[in-house]
Design a protein that fits this description.
six-stranded mixed β-sheet; single chain; alpha/beta
């Protein structure tokens, strides 16, 4: 049974903790604590948690209250800790015990917190963020808006054709071994080809160092062997899947049979992804085509995109494009994780519409970098009532435009815009937005959203504490 808050009857230990830690809180934490008292924030978490099981509202042993789940999850992203570390730190720190409302009670363990965090989907996280922005209108007036984009990387290794073939072969082999352990030796016999595959992957690495035509011929010959091995593993995995479906491979127990059905679904998923890896490897090695339709760069995170933002330090990134939109006092009023990478020029007008919806007004100043510029965007912003649009056009030949970009208000707008670069850098360094450690697209959106909420909590707290 899930509760909204912890029981109101506090123990002697809770009173002792409050007395001993009253002067140890950081100033922003006191204000953030008040923000998190909002009933709608806690209700959003509560409604998500009770959906995990049909009768969670009224039956079962007492679970972790929604208020504690929300606060511990935000503390995790405030400090960029793992679930195990946040459990250990809250257990050992009296300030964190009071901040998370755990008090003198038992701290939820890392596995429990991880399961509850997954129950809060991207929509719930977005709802929490929008509510936090809505209730702090005294901190955010909405007179100014700045927007920028960045890339949050997926938690994958650098993709090469050989490593992806190795990943697919390894996972399929492991799944088939698990099927054999449950169903026995009936039907297709398991054959482990991993040693052959590993040797081919190492040979590809050595051959890749050879320059010229000799190296290309050596690579092509080894890739043929690696692709042939992967093809045999794929064929074997398909037979395993068909035999589970037809009942040739089955288990006597209901629980084991359910596990067998789950393994079949995993095999089918991995067969599809590994088949795509085989197709794109053949197209690149033997046809020189690097733009195969449906190309994937990871068999574990197939939605990951290849994004080039023109950075000298990291020309190619593998992840998702994220929009970060700010108002005054460094508060991120909106964020978005895009399923497919859009052009920056297509984002300005929707960003203005989001600002109007969230703030209830049009900003007086809009600032962005030159990637967002187009004459159409500038005209649309003025039509919506924006007084000053500080978005540079680097390729203009118009003298009037150049003079406009030299005006003091335009330069000041660009100086303020650079703060968005700093905000993105801080989100990556302090809250872990450099790389998402949650799985799949929904996990990426939860990771970004919780990092943004954590950063807003600190900034709102600091402004309110002044």
């Amino acid at each position: 049974m899930i509760q909204l808050r912890r029981a109101s009857q506090y123990s002697f230990g809770d009173g002792l903790i409050a007395e001993q830690t009253s002067e140890l809180w950081e100033p922003w934490m006191r204000q953030a604590d008040k923000v998190l008292e909002d009933e709608q924030l806690i209700s959003a978490v509560y409604e998500a948690l009770v959906k995990r099981h049909a009768k969670s509202r009224t039956r079962g042993r007492l679970g972790v209250p929604a208020e504690i789940v929300l606060r511990m999850l935000l503390l995790k992203h405030l400090r960029n800790w793992s679930f195990a570390v946040v459990e250990r730190e809250v257990r050992a720190n009296l300030v964190y015990r009071e901040f998370t409302r755990v008090g003198g009670a038992k701290v939820p363990d890392a596995k429990t917190l991880g399961r509850q965090a997954r129950a809060l989907g991207p929509d719930v996280v977005k709802q929490i963020h929008e509510r936090m922005v809505a209730v702090e209108k005294n901190v955010i007036q909405g007179r100014r808006m700045r927007v920028d984009t960045t890339v949050v990387e997926s938690n994958i290794h650098y993709p090469t054709d050989s490593s992806l073939l190795g990943d697919g072969t390894r996972v399929l082999t492991r799944l088939m071994k698990n099927v054999t352990a449950l169903a026995g030796e009936t039907g297709t016999k398991m054959r482990d080809r991993m040693r052959s595959m590993q040797r081919n992957v190492m040979r590809i690495g050595r051959a890749a160092r050879i320059k010229g035509e000799r190296g290309k011929k050596a690579l092509a010959a080894i890739y043929r062997k690696a692709l042939a091995t992967t093809g045999r593993v794929l064929a074997q995995a398909k037979r395993f899947s068909a035999e589970i479906a037809s009942g040739v491979k089955r288990s006597a127990g209901i629980v084991k049979q359910a596990a067998l059905d789950g393994l079949k679904r995993e095999i089918d998923t991995m067969v599809t992804r590994t088949g795509q890896v085989v197709r794109q490897a053949k197209a690149r090695i033997f046809g020189g085509d690097t733009h195969v339709e449906g190309k994937i760069v990871s068999v574990f995170e197939p939605s990951t995109e290849v994004i080039r933002k023109g950075k000298a330090s990291k020309p190619t990134e593998f992840g998702k494009m994220v929009k970060v939109q700010e108002a005054e006092n460094q508060i991120v009023i909106d964020y978005e994780v895009y399923d497919k990478k859009p052009s920056d020029t297509d984002l300005l007008v929707p960003a203005l519409e989001r600002h109007e919806k969230l703030m209830g007004r049009t900003p007086d100043l809009v600032a962005a970098d030159n990637g967002f510029f187009s004459a159409k965007n500038e005209a649309a912003a003025h039509e919506k009532g924006v007084k000053r649009v500080s978005i540079p056009n680097r390729s203009t030949k118009s003298e009037a435009r150049r003079q406009t970009q030299k005006k003091r208000w335009f330069k000041n707008g660009q100086k303020w815009r650079t703060g968005c670069e700093g905000r993105i850098s801080l989100l990556k360094r302090r809250h872990g937005l450099r790389r998402s450690l949650y799985k799949d697209e929904a996990g990426m959106k939860r990771w970004v959203g919780l990092g943004v909420i954590a950063d807003n909590l600190i900034n709102i707290g600091r402004v309110m504490a002044k």
